[in-house]
Amino acid sequence: MKTSTMLRLGAALLCCLLITQAQSQDCKCDTHFDGKCTGAPPSCACTLSIGPDTKEVDCTKLIPKCLLMKKESLGTKAGRRQKPANALIDNDGLYNPDCEADGTFKARQCNGTNTCWCVNSAGVRRTEKGDQQTKKCPELVRTFWVIVQMKRNNTDSVTDADVKAALKTLITTRYKMPEKYIDNIELEEAYIFIDLKQNSTQKAAGEVDITDVGYYMEKDIKGDNLMQADNPFAIPINGKNFLVQEPIIMYIDEKPHELSMKRLTAGVIAVIVVVVVAIVAGIVVLIITRRKKGKYEKAEMKEMNEMQKELNS
Hints:
Elements: H1 2-24, E1 36-38, E2 45-50, E3 53-57, H2 65-75, E4 88-89, E5 108-109, E6 115-118, E7 130-131, E8 143-152, H3 160-173, E9 182-188, E10 191-197, H4 210-221, E11 236-237, E12 240-241, E13 244-253, H5 266-312
Antiparallel strand pairs: 1-2, 2-3, 4-13, 5-6, 6-7, 8-10, 8-13, 9-10, 11-12
């Protein structure tokens, strides 16, 4: 009786062990909290819901920025260092992009309107906007240099070497980017600059793109983690989390952009208007003051002449 009981107990334990092992080997989308995966490693099949559609994705690496922007846009419908001359900052905000089958941006974007423009491989506008019938974008110009600017929000005394080492570890482990694409990490007072460089001839098939790393980093620093909740963003240094804030991502393309002064933002235009108004107001005040002074001097001379006449008489 004891033997049979022990056999049944052993079988139950073995069954539980097998179930637990099978569950632990289930596929999981590490690079997006909303990714769904089936099967068991290494034969995982993963998808990501983008609006009403479902897109097959590779959850072993960063999901392309174009797909992430498309998902976010559909879901929301209801520095101190001198900026390089050709650097672009995404000032146009979120839009619903057209993506190629592999997740890259199409060279021309129209966002469901009759107005179109050309973008780089980061999806950032690099030309003036034009009519859908006439605006042509013959190629998707590659962004070969991404600058990630951030401000440290940590007063702990840590060496520059420790900060650089921690950031390199973050980029190579969390975002799975080969270290060879980390061109430089620079610290200037409270600011940190990370230069990621990757031209079209360097990038091997299957490697993560620097524009995707920039997008994920920007989301992480702003507290909008795209990865699983059990994989929070952190920069550990000497047992503490090194905090950063205020990310700015700059993009430099292999070819110069074609933007003019028309790209001025409303804020810059407002500043220019205020300065012009202030200058005009100053000129007006100066003219009025001089006129009043002239009238006063004329009146004073007239009074002195009259007094002189009275004394002579």
